[in-house]
Amino acid sequence: MASRRGSEQLRAGLLMALATLVILPLFWRGLPCSDDTLPHFFRAVQLDVNLRQGAPFLQWGPDLLRGYGYPIFAFYAPLTYWLLEALHLPGLDFGPALQIAFAGSLWLAGWGAYVLARRTLAPAGAFVAGLAYLFAPYVLYDAIPRGALPELLALALLPWALAAIDRAQIERVRTVLVAALVLALLILTHNVVSIFGLALALLLAVAGLPRPAGELWRALSPAVAAIVLALGLTAFFWLPGVAELRYTQSSRPDPPIAVWPRFEQHLVPPVSLLALPEDPADPAQARVGRLRVLPATEPVDASALDAQRAAVEVQNGNSRTRFLTTEELQAGLDDVRQAPRDDGTVALIVRRPALDERELLAEGRLDPVQGLVGDYWYSRDPEHPEYQVTLINARLIALVAQEKERWALAGDQLYVDYDRSAENLPPGTRLAVGEAILEVSAEPHTGCGKFMARFGRDAVLFVNSPEGRKLNLRGINARVVQGGIVRAGDPVRKL
Questions:
Q1: What are the φ/ψ torsions at residue 314 (nearest 5 degrees)?
Q2: For the whole prediction, is pTM greater than 0.85?
Q3: What CATH number corresponds to the domain at position 490?
Q4: Average pLDDT, stretch 123-129?
């Protein structure tokens, strides 16, 4: 027995060691640069604000939605943010708390898959199952590129919930409560994964029907009892959300959402799975980190070419440039405020031929349909022209980037020396930029996880602060009303 237990512990330890290999990149360089890390960071901060004001179960995030507030905790499962708050209360910053939560979720996922598989497989088979789940592409995708912490944590809890349900089928009453508690944690972690989890729990119960298969209720009763009890334990979360659905626009059609059910949109051609990465002969086309700077297709001046060559050496989050502190950013704000309110100029034009790729242009063509011609917006989101072009204050990017070669990392198309504050450019304002005319959109442009990875945490908090939103420091969105050529040095003026 001792030998068997030791073997089990060895396999579990090896699985955790392999999980550590996946986790290590999360700790290399501050908060991971991912799609959703920053929103989860801000939601955790909002929960902390509510807690310190004596309202830990308040559904309202008071500082979200540009300071107007948003009922995020009424509809989005809150357990992840309670976990981050539990790590934060002893004194841990939210950044390291997020890293620990990501790491713990991956460990929990591999271990849980092992425990679930061990109920039906030999130790070696269970080890392979745990390893396969840990390294499943979608699990890793959630952990690193997406940064979808609640979904990752739910996927980690899922095998534990199924194992508890499976055990309840055998031991009945003694383990139904345990299964209900694990299912309750799953419901409080992620809305969608919990729905699939409850369905899988019932399927697992049906799969365990005794022979003959006439005793349906006897087979299902532990799972049903656990699910009902879990729903009761979590009713404080989901019941108000269901009651308030009538105040939402959840059923309103939206073009991007409308195509999601088309499953063929999510399939990867098999040939792409076997495709080898290109080995560029031109060093200027080498991918550095997650950013690729391409040579401009139009002639540019010598300074721009120098900037491009230098930008090739810049890696996301691995820049030799030190990130500025909040105090240093505040000290440079006066210069940003001095941007001209009437007659400005175009300082830089950047085209994005693909995700995380940049071209510095001497001139570009703005088109009412395509936006900046050749920019990947047109292939990614053509149904939303309000996002066609983004304009950022050249003085602001000069402040946060510190070096001209790092400007393009921001990902905007037009870098203008012009006051883009909400007071000077309210939504609907039309701007003449070179030969083109743009109309300012009402859609906000805010700092994201990529902006933080490239310019620092203080920079993203700086541009997303109430003052930063008032001044539109991160930039503004606009659509093209009249097409035309735009060149570096062209005037920018209100119509």
A1: -90, 130
A2: no
A3: 2.40.33.20
A4: 83
